[in-house]
Specification:
The protein has 308 residues and is of the alpha/beta class. 44% of the residues lie in helices and 11% in strands. The strands form 2 sheets. Strands 4-5-6-7-8-9 form a 6-stranded parallel beta sheet. A 3-stranded parallel beta sheet has the order 1-2-3, sandwiched between helices. Helix 3 runs parallel beside helix 4. It is globular and about 60 Å long.
Length: 308
């Protein structure tokens, strides 16, 4: 069985923007065509929620509800092949929480996508704590995905660097902040799934560990106060899940050694780019894993997270 945890379908308002010139690739038709062409069993659809950059938190609520209901409707038409996740802004306040609870309880959406940042706000901010309390109470996976525009992307406008480098950067920063700001300390049952293999956080986690462990010896690096964690950052990293969207086998091997094969879910991020579907599959089969580990990545862990 193969479950692709990372596919996108844009809501109608987003797909109709002039930017796409009528060629938006994030459609249910493309999801299903790729699903059939590459032998998938289940595709998990989300809105990448890039459109949220145009809205304040208050303005975003009706747009989010339309998107959530749209994806639920697609799931209803293809229930044997599609699982849908809601979208939300973690620090959006009570109306966002009400919409998320409605989407999960009423529309049976099996998780929620959040952006790694929204207009400069990150999900470790204090106003996001009620969101994580609700997600934990609902027992749903929280899928962390980068926004269209993150930090530092004013220097990444050329050569498609905003997509290839900037978005993983934003993911990595968000995950690091979630760790050191104590979100996993406060919500140990949180099921957070980081897209894009965590944006490279496995490669820097040793630096995060020494920044925590060396205490006063590292005073010249800056303050570590207020101290909100009781263990080294890598311990909290192993409480997360990652999707395998990196297209680079050594990076996936690093993640397996860092957080464990049981913490990875298969994903391709295709569509957006259709050709990446097979590349995403091949990078897993080329790892040379045993059958049980490969099955865990391709479907086992995702089935548990999504209650399939």
């Amino acid at each position: 069985m193969v479950i692709d945890f990372h596919t996108h379908v844009h809501p109608p308002e987003e797909a109709a923007r002039p930017f796409w010139n009528g060629r938006c690739p994030a459609t249910i038709e493309n999801v299903l065509a790729l699903h059939d062409a590459h032998g998938l069993d289940v595709s998990v659809i989300t809105s990448a929620a890039h459109y949220l950059r145009n809205f304040t938190r208050e303005e975003a609520v009706p747009a989010l509800r339309r998107s959530n209901e749209f994806l639920a409707g697609l799931r209803d038409r293809h229930r044997d092949r599609i699982v849908a996740l809601a979208s939300a802004i973690p620090g959006g306040g009570d109306e966002h929480l009400k919409e998320l609870e409605r989407a999960v309880r009423q529309d049976d959406l099996r998780g929620v996508l959040i952006s790694s940042s929204h207009r400069g706000a990150y999900p470790d901010d204090e106003d996001a704590r009620p969101f994580f309390a609700l997600a934990t109470a609902l027992d749903i996976p929280v899928f962390l995905h980068p926004p269209a525009i993150g930090f530092g992307e004013e220097r990444m406008k050329e050569y498609r660097l905003a997509s290839s480098v900037g978005r993983p950067f934003d993911n990595c920063l968000a995950l690091a902040r979630l760790i050191v700001r104590g979100v996993f300390e406060d919500f140990p049952a949180l099921k957070l799934v980081a897209s894009h293999l965590g944006g490279g956080i496995c490669e820097i986690i040793g630096r995060m560990d020494y920044a925590y462990e060396l205490g006063e010896e590292a005073f010249f690096l800056g303050s570590y106060e207020p101290l909100r964690i009781a263990r080294k950052p890598s311990d909290y990293l192993r409480m997360m899940y990652f999707d395998t969207v990196s297209y680079h086998a050594p990076a996936i091997e690093c993640a397996i050694k860092t957080i464990g094969v049981d913490r990875l879910v298969f994903g391709t991020d295709s569509p957006m780019l259709l050709a990446l579907k097979q590349k995403g599959i091949d990078v897993i089969t080329e790892l040379g894993l045993d059958d049980a580990s490969e099955e865990m990545i391709f479907s086992g862990t995702a089935r548990k997270l999504l209650k399939l």
